[in-house]
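A reminder before we start the practical. When you read a complex entry, don't treat the lines as separate problems. The point of joint prediction is that each chain is placed relative to the others, so the output describes one connected object in space. Small molecules and nucleic acid strands, if listed, are placed in the same frame. In the example below there are two entries. Take a minute to note the order of the lines before looking further.
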Amino acid sequence: MAQTKDGNESRTATKKRPNEESSPDKERTITGARAVINGLEEQGAEVVFGIIGGAIMPIYDELGKSDKIRHVTTTHEQGAIHAADAYARVTGKPGVVFATSGPGASNLMTGVANAYMDSSPVISFTGQVATPLIGQDSFQEVDVRGMSDPITKHNYLVMEPKEVPKTIRKSFHLAQSGRPGPIVVDLPKDVQMGEFTREEDSQDEKEFKGYEVNPDVNGQEVEDLADSLLAAERPVVLIGGGIAQAGAESELMKVVEELELPVASSLMGLGCVNSRDPHLIGMVGMHGSGPANKAIAKSDFLLAVGTRLDDRITGNVEEFAPRAEIAHVDIDPAEMGKIIQPDFPVVGDAKKVLSSLNDLVEGKGQIDKEWWGQIRSWFDKYSMDSKGGESVLKPQEVVRALSELTDNDETIVTTGVGQHQMWAAQHYEFTYPNQLITSGGLGTMGFGFPAGIGAQIAAPDRPVVTVTGDGSFQMNIQELTTAVRERLPITVVILRNGSLGMVRQWQQLFFDNRLVETLIDEGTPSLAKVTEAYGGKGISVAEEEGLRPAMQEALNYDRGPSVVECFVAEEENVFPMVPAGAANENFILGEGDA
Amino acid sequence: MPKPKEKQLHPLTALVKNKSGVLSRLSGLLARRGFNIDSLAVGETTDSRYSRMSIIVNGDRKTLDQVVKQLNKQVDVISVKDLSDRSHVERELSLIKVHAGTENRSEIIELADIFRAKVADVGKKFVIVEATGGADKVKALEDLLEEFGIEEIARTGRVVLERAEKRKDEKSE
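Here is the predicted structure of the whole assembly.
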């Protein structure tokens, strides 16, 4: 079959334009594009993040007619999907993204992978070249389904207009149910423009055969777990993002308070236990607190809930909780034994499991006081308090100041990836689940600022702050356009240290201080001035003295984004640190310790 | 010298959606997670909406457990069954093109007969032997035919199906 360059257009021409408003006729037809917008409205989607392009024009044309859906045009597709990811984490509803075919879709992929690693329900709709052109290396064609296979919970290439409504219903169900995750729906242009009648759309009940959403909790497994937990002398609870996903924080606290259990948290779990709660012993893993890593190393029973026990948590797997019986509670059966073979595997929703666990341990006493005594001694020994009061600006102090100034139980914090992310995790006092929106699994530099945009759109009345670095901020700095256009009062706190600090730290510690390609200050402009040029507010700070007033001024600014560019002590590194491959117990506390 | 690690082969059978893209997604999953797959075969079932995959996994119990769970997690996978400890039928079909002139053609045909294999095609220089059976049997025939010189070989990969009747010592699900 011969193809012409304009084949795309000629092949996708529709027979007739449906007249929706005036025809009450049940036989009326609608286009695939209209069905996308109808489907989104039915699912209650209120916001779409995206960028228009050739192959998705029919959908945008229909979007223009909707008064229920707000569209936020970002400057780069990566910005759109990170924003949608944060939107999903803040609202608990799927984030929706539109992008065109080819580069539009491929630009999304980092964000899809990010959502996949952090189990975030993001649904991306990508335009695709018309079906007759697929597979011919057509203009702006890329195999979106093939590319997204390894990084999606599920994906679709829709080949017929009548499949559109069903695909949207399925996508929303899949994205949010069980262990949430990203969905990609690839829509060829002729499928968007082609028509179908409503009768052709039928719900197929068997569509989800074999897809188990929320398995029943095995009561015997929880009983066994409870018996061992009650018999333990040195138990520790380790929580992850699954607690926030399941909304299980109060069920967790019941068990914790009942038995007086110490709780360590992964990065993703921060906030599920209030930072001021004495049961929280800190973050675990590579940059975790001394008490948390010590307690897990010495524990005789570890109750891990809603965490996939990844390598940044476990350190050397062989030496992770080596003396403990391990109970692993997760909604995803595939997490059981993926990294650590648990003695007590329990598959189920954290809320359900913890609630039945609470029934079993209620009134059964509390754990040994001696264990708490030991944990408290580690708090004295491994304090993370930095001195402060110095003339140079310490990055840790910047985070603490921010934490104090936004101590209101409603501020949302987003971060990029690197040293600033770890300082935010270590020194900001998180008080509720999902307060911290960060790139945990994929470690995507550039996530923080667009995530701030998504968070602010999800929660217009709450303060949103982005903690980022000069490296991370510049990876998606172009989204200042979006924040200015949408008048989003995000406060961006940049810990500017002139380097790709986390990698520089590794070079200093493990590569004999050979600083190869990690110093980036030369060429980096004034980020405050850049922000001003975009139309936002920019402030620079270099000394601790001016920090709080500058930060307050930025937090008060409500006409658009504000940036506080903090020139921090360049040589600061993140400690404690567990060297890669080492046991968590053997963390180093400072430069001289390595 | 340490003995090479012996293969631990586990037959799995999976019922999956019969749609384009499913095979590529699932085989990609197996490759990406570093699972060692000895053989993979797919075909439509009596219900055209579904296909049956036969997967022979090489690895220890832990690997096997993960393969089953990761496959089960996929939306297009209806069910996965590990047949290692279940009584099952396992077959492979092999088409073997053997060098055969007039002098040894009858010898090859005799050999095929012993293995209950068929001669699917006879030419002036070659015959094609069609062998069906368990992997051991097919391999044994291949080894014997090797003496005549094998020109080409095409195999289906192993297909497996659970037996209708369970053994007495077998647990029901």
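Discuss with your neighbour: Residues 1-23 of chain A have pLDDT under 50 and may be disordered. What might explain this?
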